[in-house]
Automatic annotation (TrEMBL):
This is Trichome birefringence-like N-terminal domain-containing protein. Residues 147-437 form the Trichome birefringence-like C-terminal domain. Its main location: membrane. It is found in: Membrane. One of its GO terms (cellular component) is membrane. The keyword Coiled coil does not apply. One of its GO terms (molecular function) is O-acetyltransferase activity. The chain crosses the membrane at residues 21-40. InterPro entries: TBL (IPR029962), TBL_C (IPR026057), TBL_N (IPR025846). Residues 94-146 form the Trichome birefringence-like N-terminal domain. It is a single-pass membrane protein.
Amino acid sequence: MGKEMRFDSNPSSLHKQNYVFCVKFAVSFLLMGLVFRLFFSDSITLSSLIETTTSPLADQKTEPLPVSSPPVQTLSAFDFPASETQTSANETIKCDIFKGNWIADPSGPRYTNESCHVMEAHQNCMKNGRPDSGYFYWRWSPRDCDLPKFNPRSFLDKMRDKSMAFIGDSISRNHVQSLLCILSQVEESVEVYHDKEYRSKRWHFPTRNFTLSVIWSPFLIKAAIFEDINGVSSSEIQLHLEELDRVWTDQYNNFDYVVIAGGKWFLKTAVYHENNTVTGCHYCPGKNLTELGFEYAYRKAVHLVLNFITGSEHKPFVLYRTTTPDHFENGEWFSGGYCNRTVPFKEGEVDMKDVDTVLRNIELEEVEKAATVGSEKGLKLKLLDTTQLTLLRPDGHPGPYRKFQPFAEDKNAKVQNDCLHWCLPGPIDSWNDLVMELFVNADKYD
Ligand SMILES: *[C@@H]1O[C@H](CO)[C@@H](O)[C@H](O)[C@H]1NC(C)=O
Ligand SMILES: *[C@@H]1O[C@H](CO)[C@@H](O)[C@H](O)[C@H]1NC(C)=O
Ligand SMILES: *[C@@H]1O[C@H](CO)[C@@H](O)[C@H](O)[C@H]1NC(C)=O
Ligand SMILES: *[C@@H]1O[C@H](CO)[C@@H](O)[C@H](O)[C@H]1NC(C)=O
Ligand SMILES: *[C@@H]1O[C@H](CO)[C@@H](O)[C@H](O)[C@H]1NC(C)=O
Ligand SMILES: *[C@@H]1O[C@H](CO)[C@@H](O)[C@H](O)[C@H]1NC(C)=O
């Protein structure tokens, strides 16, 4: 089937998508829904991973898995909004800090699994037995300007009496852990809050009175999720496309800095509600509902989120982070896909997967529109466009080392790979170089 099919990166062409495309995507999204259910859920044990690979599929009459068909790829010709930066001579140059390459960095990781105490087990690749460490020795280097390495001391000084929040799914939690690990070189944080499931947390840095939160809101909008602690779903997600998730909006006025992100959870099977009626769904065969497509829901959600942000009296500095790429090769998560590369790709060596292109284009368009509206009201809203640069790091995922010593008992053990989240230390640390540059040195980019 349409293996060679491409669609260009202009989302308006999505409306012209044909039947083959729909079928292929519908099938793969059902399956992808599972990986995200697994990987974006918390407290997953290996046994639950194995159980959930079969049971949810069993009650959905799907075709056989497209085991080895490679992901549909698309050309990566994007035009990024360029930022301005300054040289020491105050001469402004055009610099897109999201375009460049990973360069060798012999100085290595900024922290270790010994110095950082907040690292969750799934991210602790060294402890879990990952044998190679070459992936520590790379630094993101924009093509047209220097990106300073994150300076935890000056970051914390800048954040005195401030409050910062990361809002999103488990990738946002991955990101906040990286930040906590980097900051722990200068000051240890004190955990002051966690929710029942340990998905949302808050830390305080007493010396600077800096508060850092992570808020688990995978859809950013109101969602009823029927998953148990192991990520096993008992019913379709019910998504309310015209209501925001109050878990973050209720706290929004407390924050001075916000890094917000969405995306991957929209690939799951879900029923869409608007104005108290069911208007359709995404991948719900047998339900006699209109397939509206995940991009329909995601665009509405991003729009709603950004409307709230631009309409709010409270004006924190907001970064919207773009979707995060995965690197499953020769299969997907459920069919033996793995990610055992040990060096980064070079710019242009890899194409973005279609889903990421779709999600990111929505993000780029909606953020650009909202930033224009926001700037008239004095709101700082910027993209944290990490998709493309992170796509170049297939070497930074836990792979089988999400689990402690997966091959200790059997060298040939079959282990579910995690090619979506990031090892700590790892490439995601560089996201914080970008966050710091955008937040702390924002004036350079105005
Ligand atoms: C360059 O920038 C510095 C600091 O922003 C300022 O003090 C200085 O006057 C500027 N020089 C010129 C030539 O604009
Ligand atoms: C850190 O990683 C090393 C392997 O590099 C491992 O031996 C050690 O147990 C780990 N320590 C912690 C606290 O995770
Ligand atoms: C700490 O920072 C918060 C704002 O994040 C502020 O409301 C509070 O007064 C500060 N506390 C002290 C002791 O300065
Ligand atoms: C829902 O209601 C709002 C106004 O109340 C309207 O603008 C919108 O078009 C409605 N949406 C749908 C899908 O009917
Ligand atoms: C599916 O929905 C349509 C419109 O709501 C209705 O006319 C049709 O009878 C339904 N089909 C089944 C099999 O329920
Ligand atoms: C990755 O795994 C595949 C399949 O086991 C193997 O053929 C390949 O050589 C491995 N690559 C690296 C870099 O280890």
